[in-house]
Design goal:
35% helix, 3% strand, mainly alpha, 127 residues
């Protein structure tokens, strides 16, 4: 990452209200052999081997109805917006938690599924 830059990662609610114009990012921390090698190389060169990371999760109030924002409709198509029906912030959050296995399977049922998680689930099952 270039000096002086800030990385922001949007979530599924932001994707929802932008009609899919801004895609939700996936956050996953993985330590690979390459990560370890880069760490060892930096350590041997007496470089700083730590980083600062600050996380802030924010959601709308649970009863806020979320749908693509009409004022930015020039950024998304009607077809794309159709993938983001009006839902409460609570439903979006709970669907996200269920899709990422952060809730017991039978704790929350939604009529919406996020297809972007299917590839991740398949790769996790392959491990």
């Amino acid at each position: 990452m270039p000096d002086g830059c800030l990385i922001l990662q949007s979530g599924i609610t932001f994707e929802h209200i932008t009609g899919g114009y801004v895609h939700a990012g996936f956050h996953e921390v993985v330590c690979t052999e390459q990560t370890v090698a880069a760490y060892e190389k930096a350590k041997a060169a007496e470089k700083i081997t730590w980083r600062v990371s600050s996380t802030l999760f924010a959601n709308f109030r649970y009863d806020v109805e979320c749908k693509p924002i009409p004022e930015i409709s020039h950024l998304y198509s009607e077809e794309a917006a159709a993938n983001y029906p009006t839902r409460t912030a609570y439903d979006i959050l709970m669907t996200e938690l269920a899709a990422t296995n952060m809730l017991p399977e039978d704790e929350y049922k939604s009529d919406v599924t996020y297809t972007q998680y299917e590839e991740i689930k398949e790769s996790q099952q392959a491990l």
